[in-house]
Fold this sequence. Notes:
The chain is α+β, with helices and mostly antiparallel strands.
Amino acid sequence: MAKKIKSKEDYYLASQWTLMFRKLKKHKLAKISLIILAILYIGALFADFLAPYGLDEFDGLYKDTAPTAIHWKFEDKNVGPHVYKIKKIIDKKTFEVKFEDDTTEYYPVKFFVHGTEYKILGVFKCDLHLFGIGEGSNGGTGAKIMLFGADTLGRDIFSRVLLGARISLTIPFASAIISFFLGIAIGSISGYFGGALDMVIQRIIEVIGAVPQIPLWMALSAAIPSGISTIKMYFYMTVILSFINWTGMARIVRGKFLSLKNEDYVMAARLSGVSTWKIIWKHMVPGFMSYLIVSMTLGIPGSIVGETSMSYLGLGIKSPATSWGVLLQEASTVTDVASHPHKLIPIIFVTITVLAYNFLGDGLRDAADPYK
């Protein structure tokens, strides 16, 4: 935890991390973004509890239906939040299928209801959900609450957005961490030792950077065995994104090492007999670690877009598992978007997450600047 600066003397004696924290607190967009990201990750962690339905639950009657309308009054009486069961009607003139509310019976929206069984944090069995639909006023059943509407198979998009966030938010984060350490390791070797080793590493980076991303994704995805489990696909996608994204971090680290390796404190460490790896990890890397963390934060949005794009193109996570990219496959044609605009809702979450990470990265970059 950063130390609070109370006097001018404390300011001059404060560590770089304390000064960064102090500047970051003044950056309003960064603070708001941090709150938004915290909400998204907490929502992903407890998605099973927050989502009213599971991944495998569907209802053919609700196929492609718009978001469920929530009402408060029934027959001019205030009965609290409730929904109506829908009924399918065929227009006799156009033969178009339409949906209407069956207002003869209402179904109350209740909190802390029992439903699909799941495991809390993958360990404890539970079937409690934050909200759901109770029994109808006349004892009927079968009504659904779908806040974001339903997909082509009649599955709740709201539940799938929450459950898909686990993949869409964690794969980019995990790949960014792997790229972070991989970039530091390779970049430090390239910048510190130089010579032929530096030339080989830089040529490899240039080759990876020269290949367009989509063909590179396709080539790497083609190497993934077919019919593998979701967990293995998660692992492979993390590796693919890490393989593509480490090059930028490596170049940043190399540039820093080229400027620092001839500094007096580095030369003094060499003359004192300090080992090469200790010089790198104890003396050089900590000096610009704040900038590396900023670079990693700014790189996560690219990984989020990458994972979403791969799943959207069918190169990553596949149904019945879900991610935001898988959900956007439902809106892949103009006809789908025009007929069912609610299927574009997942892209709102992608946009919000990318913007939040960008604003947070901007705030960290400003906080890490010693001249501001």
